[in-house]
Design brief:
InterPro entries: NA-bd_OB-fold (IPR012340), Ribos_protein_bS1-like (IPR050437), Ribosomal_bS1 (IPR000110), Ribosomal_protein_S1-like (IPR035104), S1_domain (IPR003029). Helices cover about 20% and strands about 40% of the residues. The chain is of the alpha+beta class. Helix 8 crosses helix 9.
């Protein structure tokens, strides 16, 4: 009897545990009535509860519930003050959804949901009972301006992050699109091969090129592969939405990047460059681009050459190319070099004009007198502007016959117009040497051209000084020291001479470097005495010096 009682109690307790729902759990119930916008649900153990009909509706849809339907609800409280069970269909769906979503998250599976609201930074998504957050950046692969068409539409999402304790779920629609796109790209790329010609639609244009849709996969058409000629911006030859023929240049199987080309479908103008543009030939071209180091000139579509700054002008050496030519200007250029392997043509602008130094050398031989403006003054001379926009240099030593160069240069200023003589033209080194002092000839050379050391000449006394007498010969100044005024010491007195006196002197020295004549009365007298002795006296004649000199002088008088 005791055993039977124990078994009955155990069965009764088990019955209570099975039939009595636990608060905070999901239980099954049956809809027994629908009234006043609520569904009355029998959850068993003689317990009934009420649930708002809207809890049985998906976002944007009508409630789906009828009398007799079995539903799962969440038991929040066994009995309230009215003796009814407090239940919730929404919370039951949430618990059910979280269990399902956690499994999908762990298995990295997609989940289905519908965007039903907009919040700060993104949207809310109903995942079949659980609400998730969809960041704006995760809606599509590109920014979405209008999300209206996506609202309420059931579609797949990828769970990025979830926290059940906090009730947070973050999903992405973009991940699904990218995955589908990657599959589509792989399929399209699998059907493409390098060198293949395909049709594509220009999808986007950037500074560096254009993206072309090849039917589910984009390829990059770089600006340098659009045409053989220089293209400053892709919009010059392409427009969005345009259908074009392109060639597949390269496919990167790992990154799925495709490089495209248009010019490869056209004849390469470089195949004929060597034949059409022989060395030293002159052609007319158009300036397409100007840089610090030169200017690019288009000879024909797809063929450009560089005129280096050093080949632009004979005379303008340190000038920016933009001051010599301008963009779109037509210029004549000479072909200097062709490198077919590197697709480079070196051109010259100055070679189409005669070398101004050659022209100057032909028209101004050495000794020609020229006139020019002082352009610059340096520590070693003057630079004088000449015909042909070139300069000649007057060295310090060529400024004056009488002054030191450092002194003579002080007399010149920028802008002065000077006369000079061409002394040398070096065409190869582009140098012209001028001489200002040579204008009018070399007076010293002319003065001493007919005399030599030992010659007797007549000079004019121009000044009397304590140390001697200043004299002049053919415009050249000289000085006779006191000791050279006479053979006789008593006659070595400067005061016995007067300005304007004419005196015969013997030339004792001709110094072309210092441009000085050495003259002496004493040397003349000694020479005359020696000559007289040789002509009129002998060692055994017994004649005196006075007799000899007298005879010589008398002969001279005759």
């Amino acid at each position: 009897m005791a055993n039977m009682m124990e078994e009955f109690e155990a069965l009764l307790e088990e019955s209570f545990e099975m039939d009595t729902p636990e608060e905070g759990s999901v239980v099954k119930g049956k809809v027994i009535a629908i009234e006043a916008g609520q569904a009355i649900i029998d959850v068993g153990y003689k317990m009934e509860g009420r649930v708002e009909l809207k809890e049985f509706a998906d976002p944007g849809e009508a409630p789906k519930i009828d009398v007799g339907d079995e539903v799962e609800v969440f038991l929040r409280q066994v009995e309230n003050t009215r003796g009814e069970a407090v239940i919730s269909r929404e919370m039951a769906r949430r618990e059910e959804a979280w269990d399902r979503l956690e499994k999908a998250y762990a298995d990295e599976e997609r989940v289905e949901g519908a965007i039903f609201g907009r919040v700060k930074g993104g949207f809310t998504v109903d995942l079949g009972g659980a609400v998730a957050f969809l960041p704006g950046s995760q809606v599509d692969v590109r920014p979405v301006r209008d999300a209206g068409p996506l609202m309420g539409l059931k579609q797949p999402f990828q769970i990025l992050k979830m926290d059940r304790r906090r009730g947070n779920i973050v999903v992405s629609r973009r991940a699904i699109l990218e995955e589908s796109r990657a599959e589509q790209r792989a399929e399209v790329i699998g059907n493409l091969s390098e060198g293949q010609t395909v049709d594509g639609v220009v999808k986007n244009i950037t500074e560096y090129g254009a993206f072309v849709d090849l039917g589910g996969v984009d390829g990059l058409l770089h600006v340098t592969d659009m045409a053989w000629r220089r293209v400053n911006h892709p919009s010059e030859i392409l427009s969005i939405g345009e259908t074009i023929k392109v060639q597949v240049i390269k496919i990167n199987k790992e990154t799925h990047r495709i490089s495209l080309g248009m010019k490869q479908l056209q004849e390469d103008p470089w195949d004929l460059v060597a034949a059409k543009y022989p060395l030293d030939s002159v052609h007319t071209g158009r300036v397409t681009n100007i840089t610090d180091y030169g200017a690019f000139v288009e000879l024909e579509a797809g063929v450009e050459g560089l005129v280096h700054v050093s080949e632009m002008s004979w005379t303008k050496k340190n000038v920016h190319p933009g001051k010599i030519v301008s963009t779109s200007q037509e210029v004549e250029v000479m072909v200097l070099e062709i490198d077919g392997a590197k697709r480079r043509v070196s051109l010259g602008l100055k070679q189409t004009m005669r070398n101004p130094w050659e022209v100057f050398a032909e028209t101004h031989p050495e000794g020609t007198e020229v006139e020019g403006e002082v352009k610059n003054i340096t520590e070693f001379g003057l630079f004088v502007g000449l015909d042909g926009d070139i300069d000649g240099m007057v060295h310090l030593s060529d400024l004056s016959w009488d002054q030191r160069g450092e002194e003579a240069i002080q007399d010149y200023r920028k802008g002065d117009v000077v006369q000079a003589v061409v002394s040398e033209v070096d065409v190869e080194k582009e140098r012209i040497s001028l001489s200002i002092k040579a204008v009018g000839g070399d007076k010293f050379a002319e003065a001493v051209g007919g005399v030599k050391r030992g010659s007797i000449v007549t000079v004019n006394v121009t000044a009397i000084e304590d140390g001697g007498v200043e004299v002049e010969y053919e415009g050249m100044k000289s000085f006779i020291r006191r000791s050279d005024l006479s053979r006789d010491r008593a006659e070595q007195r400067p005061e016995r001479f007067s300005v304007g006196d004419k005196v015969d002197v013997r030339i004792t020295n001709i110094d072309s470097k210092s441009r000085r004549l050495g003259v002496s009365i004493k040397a003349r007298e000694i020479a005359e005495e020696k000559e007289a002795v040789e002509q009129y006296g002998s060692s055994d004649s017994g004649a005196s010096l006075g007799d000899i000199l007298g005879a010589a002088l008398n002969k001279g008088d005759d």
